[in-house]
Amino acid sequence: MVAYGEVKAYIFTAIGNIKRKYEDQLSDNQYNELEDVEVSISKPDLEKLTYGIVRAEVVFLELGLYPK
Fold it and tell me: Residue-wise pLDDT tens for the chain (68 aa)?
């Protein structure tokens, strides 16, 4: 079983990579949404992580990034 902290680290890594790689394509709203996700999962529990993943996924899909 994966610990909440480990999932949080994966989310932080993904968001950091997106913010760096797509810096020029992110709108202010998208950037702020990703920042808010990072803040909201700083003390993770299942509900916060799930909600953070859903919120980040919306931005990723808006950028045309789809799971493989």
Answer: 679 999 999 999 999 999 999 999 999 999 999 999 999 999 999 999 999 999 999 999 999 998 87
8: its two tokens: 């949080």
Distance CA 19, CA 46 (A): 24
Cβ-based neighbour number of residue 68 at 10 Å = 3
Beta carbons of 18 and 60 less than 8 angstroms apart: yes
The three-class DSSP label of residue 6 is helix
